[in-house]
Amino acid sequence: MSKKKYPVGYKFNKLTILEYMGSMDKDKNKHCFYKCQCECGKIIYIRTQQINVQKSCGCYTKLQQN
Ligand SMILES: [Zn+2]
């Protein structure tokens, strides 16, 4: 049983949760995923464990390196 931990609209760093996806068939570890939108507009799928940990879709890290 997977449990929904974060509500739609939940914001952390540059990401906002759009939808709870549950576990994906192709993921053999059965992690639960959230569909999130970055401030830059890009849609990404991240695991529950990455909520509050992941800063952005990747654009933020790139900005810091420049
Ligand atoms: Zn981004």
Please tell me about this protein's structure.
- This protein has 66 residues and is mainly β.
- The chain has one domain (11-65).
- The protein is built from one helix and four strands.
- A four-stranded antiparallel sheet has the order 1-2-3-4, with no helix packed on it.
- The structure holds zinc ion.
Secondary-structure topology with pairs:
Layout: E1 11-12, E2 15-23, E3 32-38, E4 43-47, H1 59-65
Antiparallel strand pairs: 1-2, 2-3, 3-4
The structure holds zinc ion.
Largest sheet composition: 4 strands, antiparallel
Strand order of the largest sheet: 1-2-3-4
Work out the strand percent.
25-35%
- Rounded to the nearest angstrom, the radius of gyration is 12 Å
Number of helices: 1
Helix content: 10-25%
**Structural class determined from secondary elements:** mainly beta
**What sort of overall outline do the alpha carbons produce when their principal axes are compared?**
globular
Q: What string, H for helix and E for strand, traces the elements in order?
A: EEEEH
Structure summary:
The chain has 66 residues and is mainly beta. It has one helix at residues 59-65, and strands spanning 11-12, 15-23, 32-38, 43-47.
Question: What are the salient characteristics of this protein?
Answer:
binds zinc ion, 4-stranded antiparallel beta sheet, single chain, mainly beta, 66 residues, 1 helix
